[in-house]
Amino acid sequence: MREDVERWEAKYQAANPDPQLRTDPLLSCHLADLHSVGSALDLASGSCHSAVFLAQQGYDVLAVDCSAT
Predict the structure, then answer these.
(1) Which helix (DSSP H) or strand (DSSP E) does residue 53 occupy?
(2) Binning pLDDT at 50, 70 and 90, where does residue 10 land?
(3) 42, 63 contact by CB (below 8 A)
(4) pTM summary value
(5) Which candidate, 52, 49, 69, 64, places its Cα nearest to that of 8?
(6) C-alpha span between 59 and 52 (Å, rounded)
(7) CA-CA distance, 45 to 66, in Å (whole number)?
(8) What is the DSSP string of 18-36?
(9) How many CB atoms lie within 10 A of CB 46?
(10) pLDDT tens digits for 27-47?
(11) Cα dihedral 7, 11, 29, 40 sign
(12) What is the Cα–Cα distance from 44 to 65, expressed in whole angstroms?
């Protein structure tokens, strides 16, 4: 597992992240079908674009990623 963490860490360290938060269109589409707000779990959250979007929509979000950055 440590190799996976190191591989993903290197990938995101080398990336030039877009300063704008990008939301997955699929998430936006399915979120419109939900009728209530609650809790959300964002696994492998990376740069937390989805977690931030969900929090802005009123969800209580827990974002988890194996990488520190």
Answers:
(1) helix 49-56
(2) confident
(3) yes
(4) 0.67
(5) 69
(6) 9
(7) 9
(8) -SS----HHHHHHHTT--S
(9) 17
(10) 888 888 887 889 999 998 888
(11) positive
(12) 5
Cα 65 from Cα 69, distance rounded (Å)? 9
**Please, which residues have CB within 8 angstroms of residue 60's CB and are 6 or more apart in sequence?**
38, 39, 40
- Contacts with 64 (C-beta within 8 Å, 6 or more apart), sequence order: 41, 42, 43, 44, 45
CA dihedral 21, 58, 44, 31 (to 10 degrees): -90
CA 38 to chain centre: 17
* 14 vs 57: which has the higher pLDDT: 57
Structural domain boundaries in the chain: 2-64
The single-letter DSSP state of residue 67 is S
Interval 3-9 mean pLDDT: 75
Separation of alpha carbons 41 and 38, rounded Å: 10
